[in-house]
Amino acid sequence: MAATYLPTLKQLQYLVALKDHGHFGRAAEACFVTQSTLSAGLRELETLIGVVLVERTRRVVRFTPLGDSIADKARRVLREAEELGDMARAAGQPLSGDMRMSVIPTIAPFMLPRILPRLRKDYPDLKLFLREEPSGPACEGLHNGRTDCVLLALPYACGEVTSETLFEDRLFVAYPSGEVPSALPAIPASAIDETRLLLLEDGHCLKDHALGACNRPELRAEATMLGTSLHTIVQMVDNGLGITMLPEMALKAGILDNTNITARPLDEINAVRRIALVWRRASPREKDFRLMAKALADVQ
């Protein structure tokens, strides 16, 4: 029988890294190897399968159509290989070993300071690698295997995932203190001045949750969407530049401390977002993720 020469996982890792970064130097850094090592590994892969995967020029790295297809397949192979290790870990001590979690920016600064000390205490063998990024990139990273789970606010279309809801996070309207309607214990959407509403820029799901709860199309058309973080928007409101909407977890974490801002609940039926942990369907670490979800919910 003729010998069969198969690509190595390392070669596939190099290929996927180059696809992700579009640059030999950055791909090599991501793989913790030298650029010459990565380049040599990719040439060996091309020689092995007998086709050109990447067109190399001084300025541009361009994948051939077949190279694109093989890189996509390589990504799936690498994810399957990682799941072999996940199966072994799942059979051993719960919540141990490496876990890569993405957390969206409207959750990370408010939840992580409370939950990380508890996790370190209760699960000392868990190595939690955190990545803060908006919902879209977080879900993309989940499906391509860059992360294992995502701490997310629902509803959000994250693809084929399993989710465990931790708790509901109520939405509040925040005004400069002198402007808040004193007679209203909660603010109906009809009382919001759309010309003064400041929201996070596109890509942050909190913006869509806030607008969806209000059910006023003119808010989406007129609101100013320029904030890159809730802390930035709070400073703008504190300087009298407008009003905004904030999640309850941010208020509990003290985001309005040392400001002249008053927040009242948004008086609408759907004025909440569901904080959830999501992971790929049929993951062999599902028990770990459900245990993690319980640990996160217990901290609230």
Question: What would a concise description of this structure say?
Answer:
The protein is α/β, with parallel strands linked by helices and 300 residues long. The protein is built from eleven helices and eleven strands. The longest helix is centred in the N-terminal third of the chain and has 27 residues, at 65-91.
Our measurement of the CA-to-CA distance between the termini, rounded to an integer number of angstroms, reads 62 Å
Biggest beta-sheet profile: 7 strands, mixed
The radius of gyration computed from the alpha-carbon positions, rounded to a whole number of angstroms, is 23 Å
- Which stretches of 5+ consecutive residues score pLDDT under 50? none
Number of domains: 2
Assembly state of the chains shown: single chain
Structural class: alpha/beta
Mean pLDDT: 86
Verbal overview:
The protein is α/β, with parallel strands linked by helices and 300 residues long. The protein has helices spanning 9-21, 24-31, 35-49, 65-91, 108-122, 135-143, 205-214, 217-222, 230-238, 248-252, 286-298; strands at residues 54-56, 61-63, 97-103, 126-132, 149-154, 161-176, 198-200, 224-227, 244-247, 261-265, 272-280. The chain is 43% helix and 22% strand. The strands form three sheets. Strands 3, 4, 5, 6, 9, 10 and 11 form a seven-stranded mixed beta sheet that branches. A two-stranded antiparallel ribbon has the order 1-2. The model has no long low-confidence stretch (mean pLDDT 86).
